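Can anyone check this?
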Amino acid sequence: METRACEYCGASLKLLRTGARFCSTKHRVYASRAGKLPAEMTSRPRWIRRAPNKRPLTVAGRQASSTNAETWSTYAAAKASKAGAGLGYVLGDGVGCIDLDHCLDGGRLESWAADILAAAPATYVEVSQSGTGLHVFGHLPEGPGRLIRDGRAVEYYSAGRYIAVTGNRWGSTPAALADLTAVVASLQ
């Protein structure tokens, strides 16, 4: 039996009507407002599907790997696939992500996250699938990631990982990627 999931947040649609694509009207509206993804990402074959338990999947629904390019796909193929519960982007090839966890409370941005966004150049930022975090995508050289838990909940990665992509743009951020090297250096 195929598990159906909300196209916005990945929540189960088991109890909803057969053709339902979203778990709520709010998520349907958010999805319709979702902005265009950066061409720097959609033009690269670094896309996977994600399972509800966050495991990476190929567009055919088999296990994928964030380190094996043979399991990745184009954006068009990943978007068209019904495998799993949503899209993911495999970081690398100059594209990285600063993951700000638990920085949104009722739509209000925590001050530590606002400071990070203020330090960042204009780049693509989206609300995470939980609705309580932000993904700041941009250009980063490949290197080891880092997890910072000092009152902030910050992670950044530029290789060997994938990030779930919602397409739910934060505010009026552009559909383009900027250099995040200085921002990452300031986090250390």
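Reply from J.R.: I decoded it. Residues 36-188 form one domain.
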